Amino acid sequence: MPIRTDPDRRLVALDTDATTYAFAVDPAGLLRHLYWGPRLDRLADVEAPALWEVSTNDSVAEITHEEYPIHGGLRFKETALAVRFEDGSREARLVVTGIAVDAEAQEVVVALLDAPRGLTVQVHYRVLPGLDLIERWAVVRNEPSEAGREAGVIAVTAAASAQFHVPRAGLTLRNVFGHWGAEQQPFTQQVGPAALVLESRRGISSHHHNPYVVLDADASEDAGEVWCAALAWSGNFRATVAQTPYGDTLVQLGLNPWDAEVTLAPGESLTTPRVVAGYTAQGLTGISHHLHAYGHGLLDPRPRPVLYNSWEATGFEVDLEGQLALAQRAAGIGVELFVMDDGWFGRRSSIDDGLGDWWVDPGAFPDGLGPLIAQVHELGMDFGLWVEPEMVNPASDLYAKHPDWIYRDQVHDPDTARGQYVLDLTRPEVQEHLFAVLDLLLRENDIAYLKWDANRPMSAVGAHRDAHRAHIEALYTLVTRLKGTHPGVMIEACASGGGRIDLGALGVFDDVWTSDNTDAADRLVMQRAYSLIYPAKAMRAWITESPNFLSQRSIPLDFRARSAMMGTLGVGTDLMRADDAELKALAAHIATYKRLRPTIQDGRVYRLDNETGNDYQFTGYVREDRGQALLFAFLQASRVGHRKPTVRLRGLDPAATYRYAVNGVPHEHSGAYLMGHGVPLWLMGDYDSALVEFDRT
Ligand code: GLA
Fold first, then answer.
1. Residue owning the nearest CA to atom 11 of ligand 1
2. Which domains does the chain have, with CATH numbers?
3. SS3 of 600, please?
4. Which of 15, 342, 353, 453 is catalytic?
């Protein structure tokens, strides 16, 4: 049973295979955190520490580890919830009124109440025992009947998904930072007495930080304690990490209260997004494997096809003839899905026009998309299309007809960014319109895949206090409804590159566009950082041209191909400029990828150590049930003192024997040897790479 209770002490323990998380209700009715760490079998060990006022400046409420504290009373630290009542007061007090355990659903719901105000809160927990994770979220409700008073509105001014207490100080925080073209740049930062904040205010989870917190105390890839919390949300979020003066670390994660307020009329409620959290003593790979398994649970299990995307080849210059020529070449190298990117609709000829007009441009496609799609099918491929439904250009029929459909202030002019505005998706008529046009597009055309883009941040939402949250709710509803009406259609989440990489996106979309930066060497950095939280199955990566359009760096094709093969493979090269040798080489890489796809997309990923002091990156993929392991090895620049690296694999069966070949020379070794001693590789020069396959005999 993953949920144990001690009714006398009003204590609950959530057990996963290797961890326990425990909380209890104290005599004052506060919901107090007690334990988060390795699995504990003896419940009696879990005790609420006695509380005393350290001084008149450190009250009991201040030092108590509350699971979901609300603003009010002697609380000066971060609180998970803050409200404003109709009389203007922000003072609230929550007391636990009940604990309900649903053994079948493996859920616990703790009910809290501010009785005089009629404010109720449900703190939800769900245990995922095999994944060593728990989910948490909260439901905040205006329940005037509880107060026996007249109904008034309650404004929720902050509502995190959860607050956690990591029982250690001196931890290291891991996350990513960046901007367009530089997503997923990993960083670590020491947590100290000043609080750290990670957030997005852009209406997308963003290129700038990612909605998760990973904390460790000197963990390596395969050992050491790690705590994590990741938010399933594709919009504005805030994570606060603060070492308390009392020797532990407070983590809060949830909706960003910045420029946000949710008004609850009597009877109305707000449900926060879910946060998934876990502890492991198995290092960073350990936490990644739990989160990858969670991600796989969100994703459609079908294999992700090898796609071709036209963006880098044709930009806005798309027409029937050009796309057909590309499609023929794409089919020739083994592509399974041909995706036509931007430029096919309305009067689109640049970033400045057409968005909103999702009708086929008759100049480029006189008979609609039908002839192109028929040819693509004849070539044996599925067809996919780029859309950016949340946006509108001022120069469009849609904007001319509905200038009031965008987020805007009543007084100041709205700002364009990338020449466009954001549609107010929270309006039912906008939702209905978008569903109708996309539904029609999918009904009239045999489309297997959409690339769903969002190329600018939300801003200037005017009087709409809940726009940032409600927009994402509406987005999820729209995408889910479309997929429900057109089962089988896969949808990729893109936001000006990798601006929507989050567990919320994985819950409704099928994969994510990692970055518009397709430089294979830059991608290695991003992909490794991405792999801390997210599964390879959702990570779109393309082989593109050399020199790269962004970095202007020249990289050999083998390196570019292998870098892109580490996720879900695509090709973005202008195939019309590729010679026969390049097409042949691309075909060979695609064939290899298809053969290894089950291991790459559904195996376990190991970020292997580089012990050479030289510029290598090594990554392993292991699929036990297929008896297969892969080693991707990359050398960027050969330097003085360069020596032959010996790469130690991980995740193999030590007792099994594996066959593999390096530089065409066959070898056979035990898993124990390959993990303990390693595989000698011989990479030389700049941008050398290898992909080694290990098959259990
Ligand atoms: C965004 C995407 C690109 C491409 C363009 C099209 O920038 O990230 O991949 O689709 O839009 O305008």
1. 496
2. 3-298 (2.70.98.60), 307-602 (3.20.20.70), 607-696 (2.60.40.1180)
3. helix
4. 453
